[in-house]
Write a structure and sequence with these properties.
The protein is of the alpha/beta class and 326 residues long. It has one domain (3-325): Aldolase class I (TIM Barrel). It has 12 helices and 10 strands. It has helices spanning 3-14, 21-27, 35-50, 92-105, 125-139, 152-160, 186-198, 215-228, 254-267, 279-283, 287-290, 311-320; strands at 53-63, 109-114, 142-146, 165-167, 202-204, 207-209, 232-237, 272-275, 297-300, 324-325. α1 (3-14) runs parallel beside α3, α4 packs parallel to α5 (125-139) and α6 (152-160) crosses α7 (186-198). The chain is globular and about 60 Å long.
Length: 326
C-alpha cells in the first residue's frame, strides 16, 4: 500500500467514511517501516471519535478451573494439565474486598468472571446475582458480568440488579473458530451476545490474536464486532501457557500486534479498544506504543490465571501518552 493511499484513507475516516473490508485488507499490506504512520492515523481517529479518556477495567476470577470446554488457549480447561488455580465460587465478602482493592489501584470498572461454559442450569447463578449486586452497592464501580453462555431471562436478571455491560468474546473469526474450540459452536457465542443485547446490556466482546489465525481472520473478527455494535473490544494476545494445547505456539511480534490494534481502530472508530491479556509478555518495551496505536482502554491488574503488572505503571503509561485515565 502506498503511503499516499494510507493518508487518503485515514483522512476519509476522520471525515466520517466507514471503511470497507477491501480497504482494511489493503492496510494489512502496510510495510513494517510504515507502521508508525498507520499508528499515527489510528491515534488521530481515536482522538477524533473518542477523545482522550482511557477506560480502566480490572477483572476478578470469581470461580476458577475445571471448565468443561476445550478452548485451546485456556489454562482452566479440563482438557489441559496446567498449574492454574482451581476453586469454587468465592464469597461475596471476598469479591467485594478484591473489587475495592482494584478500585483503590485505579480501576473504574470491574468485570466478574466465572469459569465454565455458561449459566444454563448453573446452581451458582442465584449466588452470583447476590455477589454482583453487593459489589455494585458497596463500591460504586461500573460492574460487568462475564459468565459464559447466557439465556435472555438470565440477561434480564443481570440488568435488573444494575449490570450495564456483558462480556463475552467471540475469540476469532467464524471461519477459524473450529480450530480454537470444538466443544461448543461459534453460534452459541453469538446467541449469548444477542440475548445480552436484547436485555438492554452493552457489549464487551473481542477476542485473542496469535492463535495461528491469518489477517483475514482478524479482519473478519473486527468487522463482526462492528456489526454487533460492541461498545468495548478487549484484544488479548496469546500467552502460550504450559500445559495448554497452544503452549508451543510463538505469539506475534510487537510490530504486528501494534499493526493489529491500529487496524481495529480504523474499523471500529468509536469503540473502546482495550489491550488485555498477554500485552506485557508480547509487547515488552513497546507497551506504551499501543496507547498511540488507537487503544483507549486497558485491562489493569492481574488476569484470570496469570499476573499482570502494577496498575501504577499502567496509569503512568496512559498519562505519558497524553491520555486521561477515566
Amino acid at each position: 500500500m502506498q503511503l499516499s493511499e494510507l493518508v487518503f484513507l485515514g483522512e476519509r475516516i476522520l471525515a466520517g467514511h466507514v471503511i470497507t473490508y477491501t480497504e482494511a485488507e489493503q492496510l494489512t499490506k502496510v510495510a513494517d517501516a510504515d507502521i508508525v504512520l498507520l499508528m499515527a492515523y489510528a491515534n488521530k481517529i481515536r482522538q477524533h471519535y473518542c477523545g482522550s479518556k482511557v477506560d480502566l477495567c480490572g477483572i476478578l476470577n470469581a470461580r476458577s478451573g475445571m471448565c468443561s470446554e476445550d478452548c485451546k488457549f485456556c489454562s482452566q480447561s479440563v482438557y489441559h494439565q496446567t498449574a492454574s488455580p482451581v476453586y469454587p465460587l468465592q464469597s461475596a465478602a471476598a469479591l467485594v474486598s478484591m473489587a475495592k482493592q482494584a478500585q483503590a489501584g485505579g480501576a473504574r470498572r470491574i468485570s466478574i468472571v466465572t469459569s465454565g461454559k455458561g449459566m444454563e442450569n448453573d446452581p451458582d447463578f442465584a449466588d452470583i446475582l447476590v455477589i454482583l449486586k453487593a459489589i455494585i452497592i458497596e463500591t460504586g464501580l461500573q460492574v460487568c458480568a462475564n459468565l459464559g453462555t447466557l439465556s435472555f431471562s438470565q440477561a434480564k436478571q443481570l440488568a435488573a440488579i444494575g449490570i450495564k455491560r456483558y462480556a463475552h468474546n467471540i475469540e476469532t473469526s467464524e471461519r477459524f473458530y473450529p480450530e480454537v474450540c470444538s466443544t461448543h459452536p461459534y453460534s452459541e457465542r453469538m446467541n449469548t451476545i444477542a440475548a445480552a443485547r436484547a436485555a438492554g446490556l452493552e457489549l464487551c466482546t473481542g477476542g485473542i490474536i496469535g492463535l495461528g489465525e491469518g489477517w483475514q481472520d482478524r479482519l473478519a473478527m473486527a468487522f463482526t464486532l462492528r456489526e454487533l455494535g460492541a461498545e468495548s473490544v478487549p484484544v488479548n494476545i496469546l500467552n502460550p501457557l504450559p500445559g495448554t494445547a497452544l503452549e508451543h505456539l510463538c505469539p506475534p511480534p510487537p510490530l504486528e500486534i501494534l499493526k493489529t490494534f491500529a487496524l481495529f481502530r480504523f474499523i471500529l472508530p468509536s469503540a473502546v479498544i482495550r489491550p488485555a491479556g498477554g500485552r506485557e509478555l508480547n509487547l515488552r518495551d513497546f507497551q506504551g506504543s499501543v496507547m498511540l496505536s488507537g487503544a483507549n482502554g486497558l485491562i489493569v491488574g492481574n488476569y484470570l490465571t496469570f499476573s499482570g503488572r502494577d496498575t501504577a505503571a499502567d496509569l503512568r503509561m496512559v498519562t505519558d501518552a497524553g491520555l486521561i485515565p477515566g
